[in-house]
Structure of TetR family transcriptional regulator:
Amino acid sequence: MTVNLVTNPRQERVDAARNRAKILAAAAEIVASHGVEGLAMADVAAAAGVGVGTLYRRFGDRSGLAYALIDEREREFQAAFIAGPPPLGPGADAPVRIRAFLNAAVDRTVEQLDLLLMAETAAPLARFGGAYDAYHAHLSMLIAQARPDADAYVLADALLATLAAPLLAHRLRDCGVTADRIKAGLGDLFNLAGQRRVQ
């Protein structure tokens, strides 16, 4: 009797996931050490211990790899503010969650600033849609809970404008503004919006 050996599809998925994790970890380390400019496919493949062909098949090119790095971190961040522990996740009062979200969003942007700078400047409206829409919906919901008389939709845009990667890069790198100062300013901006409107 002849037995045909077939590859276990589940095992292939596990191996693919393991390779993906190794590739993204290697790419993240290279970006952290050398910036986006240092993200060369051959170097990432060597650091991850995979063939360059595997890298191109999975990510297409250098920009596809950069977007995968953003996407991986973005999923973690969204999971944290949607379903993670308080105060970032559910379970704290809306004003506390707003401050936690804004602080975490500053950290998240600073962490991948070069990658987000590349992504947000790829096209005139590249910053909007996707993650921005998720941030905006989340922040609008919390603002409406915290300040029912405020225009939550517009205020969410005003707060998120401060987190644009080009602006953050300019302030942090060219103007010497710290991430902590930006966080404090965002908190002040939200507090100002909560004051009684002048008629």
User: Anything to note?
Assistant: The chain has two domains: 1-60, 74-199. Residues 24 and 101 are 25 Å apart (CA to CA). The chain has ten helices and no strands.
